[in-house]
Amino acid sequence: MKKNKEVGLKKFSMKKALVYLFLVIGSLASLFPFYYMFVMATRLNREINDVPPPFIPGSELIGNFKKVMSNMDFFGALGNSLFVSVAITFGVLFLCSLAGFAFSKLQFKGKKLLFALVLLTMMVPPQLGLIPQYYIITTLGWLNDFRAIIVPGLVNAFGIFWMRQYIKEGVPFEIVEAAKIDGCSNFRVYWNIVVPMILPAFATLGIIVFMQVWNDFLWPVTVLRDPAVHTIQVALRALNDARQLDYGMIMSGTFWATVPLLIVFLLFNRLFIQSLSEGAVKS
């Protein structure tokens, strides 16, 4: 009996070790592109083209970044991206959670049909809406204006779906009914009861939306033509305009443009992991 128990423990330990080994290898493989981007950001162009290529950071991190700043308004573009990303993220969190609360806890005519239409919009590629959106923006006179990016991005179908599913499973219906019996309005139920209970969902959706907006290139390059209002992804395009590509400079700009995303994830990763581990979204 004791022998069988020891064999079982060894098998369990071996499986656990293999799982951890697989996770470590997967993590290193995922981090390697970011690490190599950092390596290239610290090297001169001729060093990057060496065979074999360098895998150890060099001494040109500051020098390459100075080249970036001489070719573009890096901090201005970074500030523009930060403003747009934060504005859209807060707008999406508020409006999508409000819509998710309505679809999950309120009763009104046509609710199922409206929610189905919202889900259908997720199947439409965003590129198909480029021309109609551009026509609307030009009609409103919003070219070279942050409103051209912020207003269309304030609501998205995935955010509504995510919040609806999370609130449906994570907020007991009895609590909502008890609050209404006590005289709370629908908005007060949402603000005072639902919002504190869905903070992990806010963190998850916030990270996803922030990263999506921060990395967006197609729509900003279409409506923001003035360099003064360029977001960071559009501004980085200026680094490719030189006759001879300086890969160290390009990778330096890309590396520092990625750092804010890492900071946002590190700040909210606990709530992000909590949201996923709770298994709140169910089919």
From TrEMBL:
<feature type="transmembrane region" description="Helical">
    <location>
        <begin position="247"/>
        <end position="268"/>
    </location>
</feature>
<dbReference type="GO" id="GO:0055085">
    <property type="term" value="P:transmembrane transport"/>
</dbReference>
<feature type="transmembrane region" description="Helical">
    <location>
        <begin position="20"/>
        <end position="38"/>
    </location>
</feature>
<dbReference type="InterPro" id="IPR000515">
    <property type="entry name" value="MetI-like"/>
</dbReference>
<keyword id="KW-0472">Membrane</keyword>
<dbReference type="GO" id="GO:0005886">
    <property type="term" value="C:plasma membrane"/>
</dbReference>
<feature type="domain" description="ABC transmembrane type-1">
    <location>
        <begin position="78"/>
        <end position="268"/>
    </location>
</feature>
<keyword id="KW-0812">Transmembrane</keyword>
<keyword id="KW-1133">Transmembrane helix</keyword>
<comment type="similarity">
    <text>Belongs to the binding-protein-dependent transport system permease family.</text>
</comment>
<dbReference type="Pfam" id="PF00528">
    <property type="entry name" value="BPD_transp_1"/>
</dbReference>
<feature type="transmembrane region" description="Helical">
    <location>
        <begin position="189"/>
        <end position="214"/>
    </location>
</feature>
<feature type="transmembrane region" description="Helical">
    <location>
        <begin position="113"/>
        <end position="134"/>
    </location>
</feature>
<feature type="transmembrane region" description="Helical">
    <location>
        <begin position="74"/>
        <end position="101"/>
    </location>
</feature>
<keyword id="KW-0813">Transport</keyword>
<feature type="transmembrane region" description="Helical">
    <location>
        <begin position="146"/>
        <end position="163"/>
    </location>
</feature>
<keyword id="KW-1003">Cell membrane</keyword>
<protein>
    <submittedName>
        <fullName>Cellobiose transport system permease protein</fullName>
    </submittedName>
</protein>
<dbReference type="InterPro" id="IPR035906">
    <property type="entry name" value="MetI-like_sf"/>
</dbReference>
